[in-house]
Design goal:
The complex is a heterodimer of chains A (240) and B (320). Chain A is mainly α and 240 residues long. Chain A is built from 11 helices and no strands. With 320 residues, chain B is of the alpha/beta class. In chain B, a hairpin with a 6-residue loop joins strand 1 and strand 2. In chain B, helix 4 runs parallel beside helix 6. Chain B is globular. The chains are: A mainly alpha (240), B alpha/beta (320).
């Protein structure tokens, strides 16, 4: 498989990700710089879990939203959309490759968390998958936002408007023991499962089972990803 | 064989295309044109006349408000991906992935157009060599000059062997040698049956390359024909080209009797004039009175630019 001569959109993104050496080092270091001190400190487990969750949410949303907005403004994405490639496939590849590259950025820091707070391999796997689900959902939000933005500053504004209620509902900080409608809504937000999985890693007990963490975010993310791919014709059209 | 060609649909056919931008109400209105296989069709008009808008519609980048177009008989509004696969495209402001090499950019597009690995590599190697870009093929595009970026965009447009080429100002920014190479390539492609729609304001380029051309003015086609047919419409017009050593204030030169327009082009002043006895002497006198020092003077036959001036009362390029 050759990345020096990319023959697919996702390979092009991989080539760009690994091609910018200095940016790559920064991308790998900044999650470590935030997450490792948190994991090594004695701060309450619920806040440690919340901080890791927030890092994943921000990395996913801003990464996809800003890079897409820049490529759209530059005109290169519209040029790619004028090839015979399916626009839905292009958006799916944008989503998939960005989520995986974001996970690669977070993985070293997560591994250190697991070293400092050993849990069973199954819970490690569940927590990692939950973080990946959060990255997928966050990238979906970033791609959705890019449908309406004309500058990276717009991405910040729109992302804040969408993420703040979702972060609240997920129970990262407030709404930790929701009831009624808040509890129902929390069940539909992938970030909430990441929060519960990470709390378990840090030694807290939540009501969420291993199976729920493996199954529910996967289903929710598949639905969101399908929906965001349907925005492809608008997203990839020329902005006039 | 002959009847097959006669019955084949045109390579590109646009029917009554209209597309106006809501913000400015500019764009194109009721434009129809037809480009046959092996034909190079020029689209001329000043900035804002609708050339790029028409190319955007025909490249499927934007949908028209009304009208339709077909590429090799395939409906461009209903079967976009099929139409895109048949076209090579060079947009007015080519962009690339700056952190990838020129070769990687071109390869990515060649594969996106469905070329197989070996064919793509072979075609690109030949094109990079042809356009004198082989030495820089493995450099990142962010190190390229504007002209090199344009050559890369041409390579990307040509590599997959399209049936129809849509080119927007392709030679702008190319050095002289590259312009010759590009023109030679377009002629070869046309000879092999490729249809080319070329939007350009380079009069020399259009006269040299195009079998037919059309003038767009304020979004509408105001004239269409072979360059010879179009130029024959302006009998009785002459262009006087004066090369000056020093810049002069030449607003008053338009007042000389028989002068219709004065357009500066570098060190040249181009006078679009009526053909009448004594006009050259009057123009020279006017330049001298304005303080101009004439280095060279020529009286030329009219070209497509004169046709446009005659038809619209406006210049193709910026006028002072």
């Amino acid at each position: 498989m050759r990345f020096d001569l990319p023959d697919a959109y996702w390979k092009k993104d991989v080539a760009l990700f690994f091609g910018r050496k200095f940016a790559l080092i920064l991308k790998l270091l900044y999650p470590m710089a935030i997450i490792v001190p948190v994991a090594a400190s004695g701060i309450p487990a619920k806040y440690a879990a919340a901080i890791i969750g927030i890092v994943a949410v921000m990395a996913g949303t801003f990464g996809a939203g800003e890079s897409l907005t820049i490529d759209l403004n530059d005109g290169i994405l519209v040029r790619v959309a004028l090839t015979p490639l399916s626009p839905y496939r292009i958006v799916f590849e944008v989503l998939a490759v960005n989520a995986i590259l974001d996970l690669i950025q977070l993985l070293p820091a997560l591994l250190i968390v697991y070293l400092l707070h050993p849990v069973s391999p199954l819970w490690m796997l569940a927590a990692t998958l939950a973080v990946f689900a959060t990255l997928v959902a966050a990238n979906c939000i970033g791609i959705f936002i890019a449908n309406f933005t004309s500058s990276p500053a717009d991405v910040l504004l729109y992302a804040a408007a969408i993420l703040f209620p979702l972060i609240y509902l997920s129970g990262f900080f407030r709404n930790q023991h929701p009831t009624g409608i808040l509890q129902t809504l929390r069940g539909f937000i992938p970030f909430a499962y990441t929060d519960d999985a990470l709390k378990t890693v840090f030694g807290l007990t939540t009501g969420t089972t291993l199976l729920e963490i493996l199954v529910y975010p996967t289903i929710i993310c598949a639905v969101i990803a399908g929906a965001v791919c349907l925005t492809a014709p608008r997203l990839l059209s020329q902005r006039l | 064989m002959r009847s097959e060609t006669e019955n084949a649909p045109p390579a590109l056919e646009a029917k009554n295309i209209s597309r106006l931008y809501k913000s400015s109400r500019r764009g194109v209105s009721d434009v129809s044109l037809r480009v046959e296989r092996g034909e190079v069709f020029g689209l001329m008009g000043p900035n804002g006349s609708g050339k790029s808008t028409l190319l955007r519609v025909l490249s499927t980048a934007i949908a028209p408000d009304s009208g339709s177009f077909f590429v090799g008989g395939v409906d461009g509004l209903k079967e976009k991906r099929e139409v895109r696969a048949r076209m090579g495209l060079m947009v007015d402001r080519p962009t690339h992935y700056d952190d990838l090499t020129g070769r990687a950019n071109a390869y990515f597009f060649a594969r996106a157009y469905g070329m197989e690995e070996a064919k793509a590599e072979g075609a690109l190697a030949e094109l990079f060599e042809y356009f004198d870009l082989a030495e820089y093929a493995d450099d990142r595009v962010k190190t390229y000059s504007y002209g090199m970026g344009k050559k890369l965009a041409l390579i990307e447009a040509l590599a997959h062997g399209p049936e129809v080429l849509l080119l927007d100002e392709p030679s702008l920014g190319l050095d002289y040698t590259s312009q010759l190479a590009y023109q030679s390539r377009i002629r070869d492609l046309a000879a092999s049956g490729v249809a080319v729609l070329l939007a350009s304001n380079q009069v020399d380029e259009v006269e040299a390359l195009c079998d037919r051309s059309a003038f767009l003015h304020r979004g509408e086609v105001v004239a269409e024909g072979t360059p010879e047919e179009l130029i024959s419409r302006v009998e009785g017009v002459r262009r006087i080209v004066a090369t000056l050593r020093n810049p002069v204030e030449y607003g008053s030169l338009a007042e000389v009797g028989g002068v219709e327009r004065v357009v500066p082009e570098g060190r040249d002043l181009i006078f679009h004039c009526e053909e009448r006895p004594g006009i050259v002497a009057d123009v020279v006198g006017g330049i001298v009175r304005s303080g101009g020092d004439i280095v060279n003077l020529s009286v030329q036959r009219p070209n497509l630019e004169d046709v446009f001036v005659k038809l619209t009362g406006e210049a193709l390029r910026d006028e002072v």
